[in-house]
């Protein structure tokens, strides 16, 4: 589905189902150098079990036009504009990595318009090493290879991912190249990493939330290790927020390395 947001086309994968105003809505937000396809299994399931799904390509990424966000705050404002364009009064937000920071900030800004918040592979602060920042700008192929190694706990995909024999490393490399080349005017790799590295509003956003929060963390995650989310979790608990955490025994790509565990955690949280 294509939505016109701020005058630009925004691609939203709906799981193959028509939008139904009578159903609740969940928005899936991808991370750096990803697109809507990283949520394919989770979004398709929810679309077939009573939810409207909007798994988006962020502006300036792949099928979505517009300026690629240069900050978490800018991307969060886009989420509010997206809901307005879709005519959605209330939605759940699910974000991965950079997308988790965007979802967190958007939930804090939109308050009662967000029913649930799911943060997958989240950390705060989400600092990026200077070497990786530099490589993402000047040697993106090298940086892409680095994150595809660091993000994975296994190179052997489980059968429920995309089928036996799926080459997850090669798939990750191909996706990253496609996303990077989809925007010839902006290096969305470096811009996204900069946005992660510079975001400073996580603790305040957690304090401002008005919805329950679920963290889905990978115990073998080298990009955003579980301990890096503890500050947010503790801040939420100290502020009296309804905070839950689920650990899955995989790396940073929980959606493909543990697709069923990730899906069931999201599904059960949204039902609550």
Could you give a short description of this structure?
The chain is α/β, with parallel strands linked by helices and 272 residues long. The chain has helices at residues 40-47, 72-86, 98-110, 130-138, 140-150, 168-181, 188-198, 202-208, 230-238, 254-257, 259-271; strands spanning 2-5, 8-13, 25-29, 52-56, 91-96, 114-120, 213-218, 243-248.
Major sheet description: 8 strands, mixed
Strand order of the largest sheet: 1-2-4-3-5-6-7-8
- Series of H and E elements: EEEHEHEHEHHHHHEHEHH
Helix content: 40-55%
How much is the radius of gyration in Å?
17 Å
Tally of DSSP helical segments: 11
CATH class category label: Alpha Beta
Spell out the CATH superfamily.
Alpha/Beta hydrolase fold, catalytic domain
Describe this structure in words.
The protein is an alpha/beta fold and 272 residues long. It has one domain: 3-Layer(aba) Sandwich (Rossmann fold). Helices cover 42% and strands 17% of the residues. The chain contains eleven helices and eight strands. An eight-stranded mixed beta sheet has the order 1-2-4-3-5-6-7-8, with helices on both faces. Strand 7, helix 9 and strand 8 form a beta-alpha-beta unit. Helix 4 packs across helix 5. The longest helix is centred in the first third of the chain and has 15 residues. It is globular, with a radius of gyration of 17 Å. The model has no long low-confidence stretch (mean pLDDT 94).
Write the layout of secondary structure elements.
Layout: E1 2-5, E2 8-13, E3 25-29, H1 40-47, E4 52-56, H2 72-86, E5 91-96, H3 98-110, E6 114-120, H4 130-138, H5 140-150, H6 168-181, H7 188-198, H8 202-208, E7 213-218, H9 230-238, E8 243-248, H10 254-257, H11 259-271
Parallel strand pairs: 3-4, 3-5, 5-6, 6-7, 7-8
Antiparallel strand pairs: 1-2, 2-4
Helix pairs in contact: 1-11, 2-3, 3-8, 4-5, 4-7, 5-6, 8-9
């Amino acid at each position: 589905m294509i939505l016109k947001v701020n005058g630009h086309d925004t691609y939203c994968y709906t799981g193959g189902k028509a939008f139904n105003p009578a159903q609740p809505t969940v928005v899936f937000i991808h991370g750096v150098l990803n697109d809507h396809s990283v949520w394919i299994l989770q979004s398709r399931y929810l679309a077939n079990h009573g939810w409207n799904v909007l798994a988006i390509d962020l502006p300036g990424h792949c099928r979505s036009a517009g300026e690629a966000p240069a900050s978490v705050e800018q991307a969060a404002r886009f989420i509010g504009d997206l809901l307005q364009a879709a005519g959605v009064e209330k939605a759940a937000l699910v974000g991965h990595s950079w997308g988790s920071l965007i979802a967190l900030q958007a939930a804090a800004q939109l308050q009662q318009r967000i029913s649930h918040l799911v943060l997958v592979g989240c950390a705060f602060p989400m600092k990026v090493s200077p070497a990786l920042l530099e490589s993402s700008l000047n040697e993106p192929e090298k940086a892409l290879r680095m994150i595809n190694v660091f993000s994975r706990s296994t190179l052997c995909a489980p059968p429920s991912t995309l089928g036996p024999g799926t080459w997850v490393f090669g798939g990750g490399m191909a996706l990253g190249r496609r996303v990077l080349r989809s925007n010839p005017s902006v290096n969305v790799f470096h811009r996204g990493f900069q946005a992660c590295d510079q975001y400073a509003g996580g603790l305040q956003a957690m304090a401002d939330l008005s919805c329950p929060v679920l963290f889905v963390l990978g115990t073998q995650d080298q990009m955003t290790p579980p301990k890096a989310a503890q500050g947010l979790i503790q801040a939420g608990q100290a502020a009296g927020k309804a905070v839950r955490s689920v650990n899955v025994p995989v790396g940073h790509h929980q959606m493909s390395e543990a697709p069923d565990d990730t899906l069931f955690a999201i599904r059960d949280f949204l039902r609550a």
